[in-house]
Amino acid sequence: MLTDLFGEEDDTPGGGFSAPDGKERLSVERTNPPRNETNLCGLANQGATCYLNALLQTLHFTPEFRQELFKLGRKEIGQCPPDATKHCKEYRLIPIQLQRLSARLLLADEQCISTAFLTDSFGWSDNEELFQHDVDEMNRILFSAIEHSLQNTTGSQIISTIYHGSFVNQIKCKNCSACREIKEDFLHIPVTVVGLHSLEESLHKQFVLTETLEGDNKYHCGSCDQLVDAVKRCHLRHLPPILSLALMRFQYDFVRNERYKETGKFSFPQLLDMSQFVDSVTEGAGPLSSDAHYELFSVVIHSGSTYGGHYKTYIRDIQNLGNWVPPEEEKILVPASKDDSNPSGYANYTNAIDLISAIISRIKTPATPSQICDALRHDTGISWSQRFKSTHGTFMKFMKKHPDVFVVDGAQKVSLNPNFVPDNQQEMSFVTSVCDTPSNDSTTLNNSQSSQTNGYLSPMDTSMSEPGNAPRPDPVESPASKKMKRQSPVCPPPGYRWFEINDRCVRPIHEKSITTMYGGKESAYMLFYRQSSIQLPESALNRPEAWLQDSWIAEVAEYNVKLMKQREEYEIHLNSICLYLHFATTYCYIDNRLQYVPVDDSDTSGCLLTITVDRRNPMAVLREEILSQSNPDLLPEGVKFVLHEIRDLPGGFHLYDRIPTEEDCEIKKHLNDNDHLFLWNGHDVHGIIPPIGSDSEPILITFTYPDPTDEYGKKDEEVTRQKDTLLSDIRAELLFKCDIPPTQSVLTFIKDSSYESGTRSKGNLTPVPLPPNKDNQTLSQLGIENGSQIIADRKGKKIITSQVVDERNNTLHLRIEDRCTPIANLASTYRTFSVDIMCDEHISILKEAILTKIDPANCTEGVRLRIEDASKGLCPPIHEDQTLKEAGINKNKKIIVEKGTPPSATQITISYHVSPISDDLDAREVILEDSATVGQCLAVIVANADLTGGWHLRKTNWCGEAAEILEDEEKTLDDAGVRDGGYLLVEEGRLPPKGFVRLEIFQLVPFPEGSGPSIESRRLEMTELNSNIELYLAKCKKEKDTKDVSVDVAKEKDSNKNREQLNDTVTKCNYVPRETDLIQIYPPLQHEIRFIDQIDISLTDTLDDLKLQIMTLGILDMQVPIASCLRVQEVVEGRTQRVLKDGQHTLKKFKLVSGSKLAVCPMNEGQIFPNSCLILNLALHVPTGEPGGHFLPPNEIVFDSTESSSPTALLQCISTHTNIPLVYLRVAKYRMDKFEWIPVREPPSTPRKKRKNKTSPPKPSVRNPPFNMKDNDLIGVKDIRLEDQDRLNEWYLEWDHVGLKLLIAIKEEKRRKRSNKGKDVFASDFGSRTKRAEVIPVIKFGDFSNYEPMDTELNGEIMEVPKDI
C-alpha cells in the first residue's frame, strides 16, 4: 500500500529515503485492555447482540443461577471434540459455553469478553448476530435451550427451580358458586404499561381486580348447564425465587396501522411486596410466608423505537464482585436555607433536578433562566454548561423536559410546580466522612451505621434511623463564604452497589439513576427481582472464584497468561522502530556535499545496515546493537563512533543533529521510526570535515554567464553550494569564469518556485538584482534556494539576462523518462533527463532533441512518445503530425520515450484487458485505423492476444470498471464512442442474438461470519486514515513551497528544532490516497451483492417474465411463491440503486442493455409499487454528546409521489412513519459520493409577480435538483426534541469530515504522476438494507431425552472442550 511519492531521484527536493529492502512491517493483533477500576467485565457486541449481552449479564449476576450452573461437572455434561460446532446437536455445548463465559467474566483480565463461542454453540451460521431481537423473547428461547440441553442431568431443573412460577385463572358462577380453575406456568410476567403509571398499579389490575361476565358475555356453567353471570379473576399461585417482569412497551396502533413504543412514565419500586397478588394459601401449604417480598437487582433498558434501538442493563452487585468507585456525577453541597434545620449548614444533591429546585425555592419568585444560572454560578462556582450541559442539554431544554417539576410561563420565567414534592430529604446528609473506595473485605456493615455514615438505607431496613443516634461534629468551614462545595459521593453498602453495563463498558451508578429510566425513549424494558429472604453464604461474598471448578480456574489462568503475552507482543510491536545506518567509509565529501560510493552496481540506497530496536530502551542498547550487527571493516578505527542524522537533499547528502549514544535516556527521545543515521568518527570523512546542521545545507543552483569565446553566447553550469556561502564568494567565482571586470559586471538571480514539481515556471519572470552591498549576506538570506539561477552579465547591456528571461517565458522545461534504456540491474527504474523546447515547436523537433540524449543502439526499432499525466496516467502514443500545443504538452506533463512505431494521422491506439483482470498483467495495446468497426477491432484483439473461442468487447467507465457491452459489431469505433486511447475489456462468450440482452443476476445475501469490523476497530482505522491524509496534504503543501506546512506547524512554537522535526515527519509520509480508501469511510453494506448467474432474455419481455425466468432456474437460496415477492433492482458501482417496479413494462422500456447488473431479493410478501414510488432508507440520528453523533441502522420506507412529490409531502410521509411531529422533524439526504448532507425543506415562497408568460413555474419535487432523490437513497432523520439546540443543523459525522479530506487528497493525487490508468477499482461499500421479515431468534440444540453420558475418552484420548470455538 505504501509507495514512494517522489518517484525519481531528481523529484525529491525535500530529501528522504525509502526502506532499502522494501520489507513491510508485520502487523500484530491488538488485544482488549485490562479491566477498569470497577474490576467488572463487559461483553463485546458482535453487531446487534446488545439484547443478548444484557440478558447474559443479568444471568451472570444472578448468584443462584451461576451456583447451580457450576455444580454441573464436565463428567456429567460430557466432553466434546474440537470440531463440536459442526455437530452441535450431539454435545451439550450451550451449558459448557455458558460456564466458560461466566468463568471469564469472573476471572479474565479483560475489559470485555467475546460471546462468539457461545453464539456458535447456538448453531448460528447465517449472520444471526447482525439482527436485533427482543430481549424478552430471547430470554424465553434461551431458557428453553438450557432446559433441553440439561435433560437427564442433575441440573435439568435449574430454570424451573429458579424462574418458574404459576398463576390461576378462576371463573366463579354467581348462581351455584362453582369455581373453575385453569393453572398456567410462567417464566416471566408480562406487565401492561399503556394507561398505567406504576408497577403496583399494573399488577393490581392484573391479579386483584375482577371482571364480571354478564349480558352478551355470559359464562356457560357446567353445574348449572346454562349461561350465567360469573366473576373472572387471575391470581398468582406460586412465586419463583427470581421474578422476571417484562414491561409491554411495544404496542400496535390500529388507527395509524403501525407499531409504536410507549414512552410514558412507569415507575417501579426497589422493594416489591407481592403478597397482595398471591393466594393467601399456596398449594395447601399454609399461609404465605415472607417469600413474597422481593428486591430489585437488574433493569434491562431499551433505547430507541420499535424499528431499532439498543439494550443495556443496570445491575446490582449482590455478591460484591465489583469495585464501586464514585461516578462522574458527584454530590454537590449547597448552602441550606434559613428554614432548613441542618446543623452543618449544607445540603448535598446528586442530580440536577434536586439542585435546581433547591435554588429556585430559595429565590421564591419566578425567575428567568439567566437569574437561576447566575445563582447557580454564585453558590457553586460552576456553570450549567460546565457541569450539566453535556448530560442534560441546554437549560431551557432541561426545564421543558421535566414539566412535573418546573413550570415555564409565557414570559419564559421558571418556577416550581406546586404539586412537586422534593425528595431531597432522602438525599440530604450531614457533612461526614464518606466511604472513598469499597473494601473487598467480607465484613458486614451495621445497618444503622451504613444508613447514616454512607447516606444509604439498606432495602431491608423499614425505617430511617434518627440523626441523633449517630452525631457528627460540625465541619470546620471558612468564614469567607458558604459557597457550594464538592464532596465525593458516598459509598453504598456491600450488596447494594449498582453498575451500568453497556456491552463492553461498565461504570458505577447511583441507585437513584434507576428512576431516570421510568419513561422516555430510553426506559426500562425488563425487571428482575430477587426474594429478600435469600441469603448468600459468607464464603461467596467478595470471592469471584466461589463455586468455580478448578478446571475452569486453571483454564482462565492460562487464558490470562495468553492475554498478557499478547499484550507484551503488541507493546513490543508498537514500540519497535527501524533505523537505517550509513557508514562514513562508503562516503566521500566532494563539491560541497557528501556523495555515496556504491559497493557494487546494484547498491544505490546508500544504506548498508537496517536495525530494529525497541524505542523504550536506553541509547546504550542501540550502541550495542550497532556494534554487534555491523561489519567491523565499516566501523571507525581506534575511536568510538558518532551518530548523526543524514538526509538526501537535491544538492546531495547532508548531516544534521548528533545523536547522543552515551546518555541513559530512552531512544524515543532522540529517534523516530525510519530515521537514517550516519556512523563516523565525528571528525572527518576521508580527511575532510563535512559541514553539519541546517544552516549549511547544500543547495543545487545554476550559474549562467557569458561565453568568453562567443560574444552573444552563454554557458550554464549546475553547481552545489552551501546555504551559508557568502554572495561575495559567488560573485568572485562567477566573474573569474566569465572574465568580466567587477566594475562592469552585474549579478541577478531568478528563483524557481516550482523546482520541486520538476517543471520551470512560465510567465513574466523578473530577475532579482544582487548589488555589491549585499556581498556580506548568505545565499539563504538572499532567498536563493534549490533550482535558482544566478546570472552574471555586463552592466548596461544585460544580453544574457534578456536571453534567459525570454527562454524561461517561452520555453517548456520537460522531464523525459527514457524507457528504452533501463538502468543496469534495475529493470523497473529508468533514466530521466530534461529537455528545453519552445512552446510552438513541432513534435518532430522535440523527438529530435530527445534522440540526441539517447543511445542510438537502443533506437534501432524506432521510438515513440507518450504523455504521462498526473491525473490520467499514461496516455496513448502521440501522433507526430502536430505541435506541442495540439498534443496537449505543457509544463505539467512528463514525456515517456519507449520503443515502438508511432501511429499515423489516420490511426488510433486501443488498450485492452482480457477478463478477468489480473493485477500482475499490464494492459495490452493495438493500433487500428480510425475507420475500423467493432468487429474488426475484436478480430485484431483476439489475434493479438492469441485467444480461441467466442469473445466480445465491453467499454469501461472512468475508473476502469466494466460498463456498456459493444453489441453491434457493424458500428465503427467512432460511432460506438471508442476514441484514441480507449480502454476495452475482452470477455469470454458470444453476444446474445439481436434483440436479446445478457443480464448479470446477483442476490442480496447476508455477509459471511465475522466480516464486519467492530465500531472500535473502525474508529481506529478512521483515526489512522485521518492522520495519513493530513500528513499527505501537508506534504503537498510543502512541495508547493507553502510556508504553512500543516495546521500542526502553526501551533508549534517558534522553535527551529520543533519545526524541523515536524517537517521531517511530513517529508517521510509515504501514504498515497486512493479511491479504494473511500470504502473504509462509507457506511457498511447491510448485505453482500453475490453473483449467481447470467440470463439471456428478449428486450420485448416484461419484468414479470424476467422474474419468472429467475424463479424457474432454481438459482435462488429460497423459494419464491409469486413474482411480486421478488424485488429486482439495478446494481451500479457496487451499490443497489433503481428498483424495477412495473411488472408489465418491457426490459427495453427500462433501458437495460447487455451487461446490466440486477440484484434480486426475495420478499416475504408480495410488493407491487407504481413507478411514482420511491423506496428510501431512513436512518434515525442519535445524539451521543460527540460531534455529529451517530445514526441507527436504516429502515426502508415507501414514498408514494403519485399525488405530490414535493418536499412537504416527503416530510409528511417520514413524520407518519417515525411518529415525529412535523414541527420537531429535520430531514436531510446523504450524498455518499461527496460526503454531503442536503437538508430537505420546502423552498421559501416568493411573492407572485405579473409575468408576460402565463405558464406557472415548475412545482418543487424531491426528484429534481438539488435533491435528485432516487431509490435506495439514505435519508437522515432528526427529532429536535432529542437534539442539542446548538447542533440542529449539524449533519456531518466525524467520518464525513475524514471523507471530505480524502476527496481533496485524491484530487491532489490526480495532479501528481500516476503509473497506471484506472487500475484502482472504485466500489462503494454501502447499500440499502432491505426490510427483513421479523423472525424469532433460533437456538439449535440436540435431543438429550434419551441421552446416556458419553465416555470421556474418545479414541483413547481425553478431548478437552475447545477454548475458542
From TrEMBL:
Compositionally biased tracts (Low complexity): 439-454
Keywords of the record: Hydrolase
Record's GO cellular component terms: cytosol; nucleus
Biased composition (Acidic residues): 1-12
Keyword Isomerase (UniProt): no
rRNA-binding keyword on record: no
One BP term from GO: protein deubiquitination
Gene Ontology MF annotations: cysteine-type deubiquitinase activity
Residues annotated as domain USP: 41-353
Region of interest (Disordered), residue spans: 1-33, 436-489, 1241-1268
A Pfam family that the UniProt record links to this protein: UBL_USP40
InterPro entries: Papain-like_cys_pep_sf, Peptidase_C19, Peptidase_C19_UCH, UBL_USP40, USP, USP_CS
UniProt protein name: Ubiquitin carboxyl-terminal hydrolase 40
The organism of origin for this protein: Oopsacas minuta
